[in-house]
Structures are given as C-alpha cells and as structure tokens.
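#struct-pred
JK: can someone run the complex with 6-O-phosphono-alpha-D-mannopyranose? inputs below
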Amino acid sequence: MTMELLAPFTAQLDLGSGQLDPTHKRIERRLMEMGDAYLEAPDADTLVYEVFNLQVPETNANILSCTTVLQPGKVGREYFMTKGHFHEIRDRAEVYVGVRGQGAMVLATEGGEHEVQWMQPGSVHYIPGGWAHRSVNVGSEPLAFYAAWIADAGHDYGSIEQRGFPVLVVEEDGAPAVVPNPRYGAA
Ligand code: M6P
Ligand code: ZN
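RT: done, structure tokens with the ligand placed:
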C-alpha cells in the first residue's frame, strides 16, 4: 500500500483567546446568517463565533482539527450557540476539549435521543458517530474549545436546519436550563 507522506507540523493554541497560530482557514458566523436557528429573530448582525482550522487532506487517514471561539450573548432567552451538525458520513466520531469559559454541548441522534454535556476548561468529550452536536456559551466570557475529527466526515447542516435539536439551552432565573424545543421536528 502506498501512502501520502505529509510533513509533521506544530501549531500553538492560545489558552486565553482560543486562537490557533498558524490558522490555515478562519470561518466567521454572524447572527443574521443563522437567525433561523433561534426561536426569536435576532435584531443585529452580531459576530457569534469564529472557527480557526488546521487543514489536512480530507481522507479517513487524517484528522482535521480546529478551535472555536463562541462569544457570550443571547437571542431572547437562548444563549449564543453554533449552528450544529451531523457528519455527512454518519459514523464518523469527534473529540472536543474545553479550553476557556463555560458551555453546554447538545447532542442528538436522528431518532430523537438527546443529551447535554457541560463544557469547561479541561473537559474532554467523546462524540460517537450518529450524534449531531451543537455548542452553547452559557457563561459571560468567550467559550473556546478544541475539536478533532476524522477528516472525511463532512458537515451536514441541512438536517439540523430542518428539524432543530430536541432541546434548547436557555437562561432561566440567571442560570442555564435545558427545555424542550417547541419547534423540534417541524419541516
Ligand atoms: C467544532 C467542530 C467543527 C465545527 C465548529 C462549529 O469546532 O465540530 O467541525 O465547524 O465546532 O460548529 P458548526 O460547524 O456546527 O457551526
Ligand atoms: Zn462535528
């Protein structure tokens, strides 16, 4: 078997800002482009999160990774969150490591099983294949985490845009609460 020999590389993760240096590709998500994800319509085009990617060939022999820096904030009672996705190749797994701030990871299967895990600096999360995942910033400082996944996995956003997640993470009496999503499953 022949294999492509890549050059080893090292990047530096800034534990304060969550940024990776060097970053091969940076993605920015603003409220207006993900407005439908929230129950209430956002009224400003605020920056919600940035993703700092380390690129490698997208094959099942490689591992893609990135950091995400998710700003604190809310739309109505819902905390700022990522879009969330299944992997296009459903059985591909992923690992998250909390770097800064306080977060919630909402996980769901296509069958509607769901789970919420709490993220903090040093928390390590294993996301098995078949579980969609979304991160939510439940604190008052930026939430930063590192993620690594099998590089051919791909992102399926469409399923989440159509059905949503079974639960929402909202602020209730100044603290995060997990509540049913009244719009879950609606096409
Ligand atoms: C994590 C990983 C990335 C993902 C990012 C933002 O860092 O799961 O693959 O892109 O979160 O989440 P999303 O793509 O759902 O907006
Ligand atoms: Zn993923």
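RT: quick notes.
The radius of gyration is 16 Å.
The first strand starts at residue 12 and ends at 13.
JK: thanks, will look after standup
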